[in-house]
Amino acid sequence: MRVIIAGAGSVGRYMAGQLQDSGHQVTLIDSDATVVTHGRATRLPVGVTWYLGDACEVATLSAVGAAEADVMAAVTGDDEDNLVVSLLAKQEFAVPRVVARVNNPKNEWMFTDMWGVDVSVSTPHLLTALVEEAVTVGSFVRLLSLEGGKARLAEVTLAAGSPAIAKEITDLGLPRESTVVAVLREGHVVVPRGDTVLHEGDEVLVLVTGGVEDDVRRALVG
User: Fold this and answer.
1) CA pair distance 14, 48, nearest whole angstrom
2) In this structure, how many other beta carbons lie within 10 angstroms of the beta carbon of residue 150?
3) Which of 6, 9, 42, 152 is the most exposed place for a label (fewest CB within 10 A)?
4) Domains of the chain, CATH where assigned
5) Inter-CA distances, 167 with 56, 97, 160, 179, 199, Å
6) Beta carbons within 8 Å of 203's beta carbon, 6+ residues apart
């Protein structure tokens, strides 16, 4: 796949290296000549194409072939820039998948499909959720929001009093707008099936769409 990353900071460079190693064709854009010159000189990440320019400009995105890109990732340290890049990628070049980084949690509400964002990642919110997940048992913890909040990935560690313990997934009565996507049990991932029986201490990952979080919470937490 062809991936364009706007922002060659530590986040952008790491992403580029990982994606390139996975066999994708990656282009990194940055407006800092020093950063781009250093990247070209060191050829790191290996195999990544570097481009000096402002990703907020149509001409720059056109020059790097945004019209043929499969994914655009806007991961600069500026939320305004990330929104502009996302909007241009979607409206001007019809990039199928646009991922944007949220630096300031107060701005997360803007990172929706109205601005061309398919998936937004708020690092502070994600870290908070992961810490909460690590120290909390028996609570419904949101890990990640997708499609501007229309879908959420949540986690519940089943406490002793959970009504889900010793039940098969098909017997939980979960609404159709929710799906158990994984169960973590004693450090191992269990691929969930309808007849998978849940145990105390299981970490249950659920994908929820629509307004059914309360129903899912009642089924897993009580």
Assistant:
1) 11
2) 12
3) 42
4) 2-121 (3.40.50.720), 136-220 (3.30.70.1450)
5) 52, 38, 13, 16, 8
6) 133, 155, 156, 157, 158, 183, 184, 185
| Non-local CB neighbours of 181 within 8 Å, separated by 6+ positions | 153, 192, 205, 206, 207
CA 62 to CA 188: how far, in whole Å?
45
Two tokens, residue 180? 């158990």
How far, in Å, are 73, 106, 136, 140, 154 from residue 159 at the CA level?
A: 38, 32, 10, 11, 16
In the structure, what pLDDT confidence band is assigned to residue 148 with cuts at 50, 70 and 90?
Answer: low
CA end-to-end distance (rounded Å), the chain: 43
Summarised one tens digit per residue, pLDDT across range 126-144 is: 767 666 655 566 777 777 7
Q: Nearest CA to 27 among 42, 47, 43?
A: 47
> 0.70 cut: is pTM over it?
no
Residues in a beta bridge with 157: 203
**Dist. CA 43–CA 114, nearest whole Å:** 36
